[in-house]
């Protein structure tokens, strides 16, 4: 297999999405960027115009995390989940589900039964790092819904760019 | 739900099965009859026919009517639509990872300058 620098995305079976990508950095750094909030805030940005408002991470097995993005005049959205396996700097397993109204999410909210299970594996390739992120959804329908939501967010980016262009 | 997205669901479901992907790979080389597929795949004709029906419902193959043996033919349009859809989603995430590339570069430089 030829590894390109860009992201490769494949659908595996009915329920999984697999992202692979090579980063030109040692895996300790790539791992830090996925787990340290001050670093995550720098790159895990939403579409243009959105800010990464909340990045709460309790990095321990059974610990929860919550990310919230916001935009003036638009409803906030977030992602939340629980860490299941932590093995720095090579493996991180957590659940993940979409939070449509982060402000009304109770602090003790139970785990979403439709949560995905994300497995991040980092493999050292000399000075570089191969990332394999497998997202397993409970059903093909949920996978489709998640991908469509991502597509809408992508569309939002396009519209924001169009807005900027039209302002000129 | 739009027609296009529900049709894509059918295409992805059809592509999820390894036997059906192998059948498409075979058809990419040219038209084949059910008999012609049953032998190399070591499957009964009804079993092959069931797979072919799923592929045909997804629009991934068609039946050539002119010959009596009704060979099956690969249709590339739905495959292209499916790969285009994946590509759009990939580009969205690639944008985020390019942010990460820039951050990693900065972190590496910091480390080296210490």
Distance between the termini of chain B: 55 Å
Strand order of the biggest β-sheet of chain B = 1-2
Number of helices of chain A: 3
Helix content of chain B: 55-70%
**Overall number of structural domains of chain B:** 1
Our measurement of the CA-to-CA distance between the termini of chain A, rounded to an integer number of angstroms, reads 45 Å
> Based on CA inertia axes, which overall geometry of chain B fits?
elongated
Assign the CATH superfamily of chain A. START domain
The succession of helices and strands of chain A, N to C, reads EEHHEEEEEEH
Oligomer status:
heterodimer
User: How large is the radius of gyration of chain A?
Assistant: 17 Å
Protein traits:
heterodimer; A: Alpha-D-Glucose-1,6-Bisphosphate, Chain A, domain 4; eight-stranded antiparallel beta sheet; 3 helices; globular; B: about 110 residues; Arc Repressor Mutant, subunit A; two-stranded antiparallel ribbon; 5 helices; elongated
SSE blueprint:
The complex is a heterodimer of chains A (168) and B (114).
Chain A: E1 8-12, E2 16-23, H1 27-35, H2 37-43, E3 51-57, E4 64-71, E5 74-87, E6 91-99, E7 116-125, E8 128-136, H3 140-167
Antiparallel strand pairs in A: 1-2, 2-8, 3-4, 4-5, 5-6, 6-7, 7-8
Helix pairs in contact in A: 1-2
Chain B: H1 3-15, H2 18-27, H3 34-38, H4 45-57, E1 61-63, E2 72-74, H5 77-113
Antiparallel strand pairs in B: 1-2
Helix pairs in contact in B: 1-4
